[in-house]
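Fold it.
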Amino acid sequence: MIRVFTDFDGPIMNVSERYYRVYQFCLKEIQRPNQPILPMSKAEFWQCKRGRVPEIIIGIRSGLDPSQAEAFAQLRRQTVHTLPYLVHDQPVPGAIDALEKLQQAGIDLAVMTMRRVRELDEAFSRLDLEQFFPPNRRYCLSNDYVKTGDTKDKPLLMAKALKKLPAASDVWMIGDTEADIVAAKTHGIKAIGVLSGIRDRTQLNLYEPDFIVNNLTEAVDLVLDTALLQAV
């Protein structure tokens, strides 16, 4: 049996609109009356996010002073995963077709995400994604989970999944961040980094995934092509 774990945000969901709207909201909230600010375009902002430019630096580049930038970063953390903004997430082009392709190929498919239950449920119900991931193939954080950091929390989530799930002969992890790669490497799983999410190629390369591809479609083709070669 072949198993594929996939992250949710990045491989499946495009979160750039949500992140940009939260950026705009926080900038306006922190701006003093009549203070000139320099809002980034969405492309500029997303390039910063993909390159891991710190939030405080993004705030300063946008015209805030250092103390404002700290408040901006804190407000962004409090806001970015709230339900009113999650509705702006939409599937990455081709991602749903890629999930269908995996399903039709008989691959054991599981989602592994740092979203909390309520955040994952929102997208699943809005976009009818339950069909791909039954409850016993959803690994996310509880609503009251106290995060310590994605590169620490995701390997723990992976350990939980591997303990519960039946053994598989070949296991892959598809993700868009360092946390996905670290989780895979911690447990001896092949890691595919995708460029459709919140990290660019330079950032993904730092963590040495086995492969880097553009999106979930290419990742799925890679998994299926490898399976065919192994079957020969």
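The chain has two domains: 1-12+89-229, 14-85.
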